[in-house]
Amino acid sequence: MNEKKILVVDDDKDFAQLLRHDLTQKGYQVEEAYDGEEGLKRIHEDPPDLVILDVRMPGLTGEQLVHEIHRIREGLPIIVVSAFLGNTRDRENLMKKGVRKVIDKKSDQEDLLAAIAEILGG
Fold first, then answer.
1. Is 21 helix (H, G, I), strand (E, B) or coil?
2. 79 pairs with which residues across the strands?
3. In the chain, how many domains are there?
4. pLDDT, tens digit (0-9, with 9 covering 90-100), for 6-57
5. In which element (H, E) is residue 24 found?
6. If you ran DSSP here, which 8-state letter would residue 12 be given?
7. Domain housing 108
8. Cα 67 to chain center, whole Å?
9. Which end of the chain is more exposed for a tag (fewer CB within 10 A), N or C?
10. What is the CATH number of the domain that holds 49?
11. 58-94 pLDDT per residue, tens
């Protein structure tokens, strides 16, 4: 059983819950946060091994959350999964800010699962 903990930060509760289901089936521990502030609080309280987050969220956006995560937990891997990253410049900017992978929400779920396994080594 994989004991790696993943935090999913996304205001789309249906997507977060579906992702939680898929990841728990793969043996990961999964927590959800539905906005950036809640995600940041959870990272402070009990840091995960990986954060998966959306870019467009109310309040603290995904890009702001990336900055805050790296300020308090340098090296914590982040995957951005968003439906709003159509252009290459946005993706490149996120990668320059330390995001490990940027994946379109419309992509096959296997792409995300493969990226998680690659980052977490399992």
1. helix
2. 52, 101
3. 1
4. 999 999 999 999 999 999 999 999 999 999 999 999 999 999 999 999 988 8
5. helix 13-25
6. -
7. 5-114
8. 13
9. N
10. 3.40.50.2300
11. 888 888 899 999 898 888 999 999 876 666 777 788 8
Task: Tell me, yes or no, whether 64 lies in a domain.
Answer: yes
pLDDT at 119: 94
Rounded to whole angstroms, the Cα distance separating 61 from 114 reads 25
Angle between helix 36-45 and helix 62-72 axes, rounded to 10 deg: 20
- Any domain includes 121: no
In a domain, 120, yes or no: no
Which residues lie closer than 8 Å to 114 by C-beta, 6 or more apart? none
Here the tokens at position 111 are 């792409």
pLDDT digits (tens, 9 = 90+) for 90-119: 778 888 888 999 888 877 788 899 999 999
Read off the tokens for 10.
């996304």
pTM of the model: 0.91
CB 112 within 8 A of CB 81: yes
